Amino acid sequence: MEYKKYVAPIVVCLVLGNGAFINAQIQPGVYISDTDNIRHELKIDDTYMIYTEYRQSPPKFIRTIGGFLREEVAAGKRLAVLLEFNSNYEKDSLRVLSIPMEMHGKNLVLDLNSKMTFTPITKKEQDLDGAWLFATRGPDEAQERRGEENPRKTLKFLQDGRFQWIAYNTETFEFFGTGGGSFSSEDGAYVENIDFFSRDDSRVGATLEFDYELKGGEWHHSGKNSKGEALYEIWAPRK
After folding, report:
1. What is the pLDDT of residues 189-229, one digit of tens each?
2. What is the pTM for the complete model shown?
3. 120 near 27, Cβ under 8 Å?
4. Omega cis (within 30) before 9
5. CATH architecture observed for domain 130-237
């Protein structure tokens, strides 16, 4: 699937919109569309959207894009996004999305060159829900931290039992990798089940278990990564 590139007036409208927000008709959550063994996964909250495609069997990561929602008054019903990352940027140079949309009951219909129906998954609130930016390697010893002002970012987005991390650069639009799937977080135990992994499809199906603790509003995360290496990470809430 290829996204259309839109003309300058839409870009202007996106940039000049008064603040990020989601169309009142769209309920924040995770939406799924499965077509021909390809999963299309859409995560949306009040200000941000992530769209990811991956083949389920045999597993194969295809693409991911994400960014801040914007108002697009002149164009009517559209899901308008100012992208922050695009795994296909070297091929399509896409930094803005403006997608025709409709709501059919609770289902979201997007016209991605052809109309596709996304169904919301069951709501599931857990610890750690929300958007997080990687801050530093732990433990916390007052070391320098990577903040919002740093163009090199690793975002972790958790919603309705689904997680995704994305590493990227907002200045150069370089894309470094992503992975995601389902998660649980309860009583200090955080578990990830990997459904897609851009750097190595063979890791799909793995389950990773970690310890977590919230300290001063930050997420302290420890255990072993997908290579079996010990890690301690500190994640700060994205504001």
Report:
1. 999 999 999 999 999 999 999 999 999 999 999 998 877 88
2. 0.86
3. yes
4. no
5. Beta Barrel (2.40)
